[in-house]
Amino acid sequence: MKEFFGFGGYERLPEGFFSWQHIAFVSTVLLVAVLLAVVLGRKNQKRTEADKNRVLVVSAILLDAIELIRIVIVCFREGNAMNWIYNLPLFLCSIQLIVLPLAAFSKGRMREAALDFVSIFGALGMVLGMYGAGQNYNAYPVLSFDNVFSALTHSIAGFAALYIMIVGLASMKRENIWITFAILMGFCVTAYAVNLLIGYNYMFLMRHDGTPYQIVYDFVGGSPVLYPLAVVGLFLVYITVFYGVWFMIAGAIRNAERAAGKQNGLKISI
User: Fold this and answer.
1) H-run or E-run covering 161
2) CB-based contact 146:10 (threshold 8 Å)
């Protein structure tokens, strides 16, 4: 247990980023998350919204509880109670620590926007946060506290995103798009300000740290101005593309349903 939690430092050498151990571990975790989302999603598809929401409530509680335990253990392991300032929910994936509880416990347009935000970024964060976490898998053994707890939080967020879409809780209303952009931009501005204050790298806005953001970093020549702007720009482009694809698919489904209704002599309203 001492070795798993890294007390006194890990004796094992890291297997390395994109090693077969890394790929096997994160693929297994991702597969379990996807299967759970499909099974529970199909089971609850025709149930009430309250029944559907119970899964999100449990997911939100688990997500925040695991992250809180992680922060406490890290601070205790490092012997520095102030270590929490380097574990604030200011990474792209960490936003789910706040938005998923909003999706589970809030109401009205805030709930709708939170559900949409989790749907848009949950699965992306799961894939990038596990397969692209070079800063973790180059530093710690695969089966270690740091990587296992990180995989758990990322997979819960990804599970929630897939579950929301399967049970039909994602509204993707056009009038709520600005809230999605506002949530992201608010976190980006906060993360950048905190980075300047404490010299950290939240949202990888200052440097790539071995993540796939290295492509962007190298493309702009490491510019301290262009690099963070490019990273934030990619976030905004991704949101725009996600909504665009969603509306295209929704439109195609509506057209197919209308065509089927006409062929069967039915009058439908969508």
Assistant:
1) helix 145-167
2) no
Residues 6 or more apart whose CB falls under 8 angstroms from that of 204 comprise 91, 211, 213, 231
The C-alpha atoms of residue 43 and residue 40 are separated, in whole angstroms, by 5
Q: What does the alpha-carbon distance between residue 116 and residue 164 come to, in Å, rounded to a whole number?
A: 9
- Whether residue 165 contacts residue 55, with contact meaning beta carbons closer than 8 Å, is answered with no
Position 176 scores a pLDDT of 87
Query: Which letter does DSSP use for residue 120 in this model?
Result: H
Reference 165, options 55, 66, 38; nearest CA is: 38
Residues of the chain short of pLDDT 70, as ranges, are 261-270
C-alpha span between 165 and 116 (Å, rounded): 9
> What pLDDT is stored for residue 225 in this prediction?
93
Q: Which of 143, 101, 121, 134 is nearest to 204 (CA)?
A: 134
Torsion of CA 132, 133, 139, 144, to 10 degrees: -120
Q: Please report the pLDDT score of residue 267 as a whole number.
A: 46
CA 141 – CA 12 distance, rounded (Å): 7
pLDDT at position 1: 86
Element (H, E) at 24: helix 20-44
The C-alpha torsion from 262 through 266 and 267 to 270, rounded to 10°, is -80
Residue-level pLDDT at 232: 94
DSSP, res 132: S
- The pLDDT of residue 116: 94
Q: Provide CB contacts within 8 A for 49, sequence distance 6+.
A: 169
- Planar angle of CA 245, 180, 71, nearest 5 degrees: 115
- Scan for tokens 């929401």, then name that residue: 53
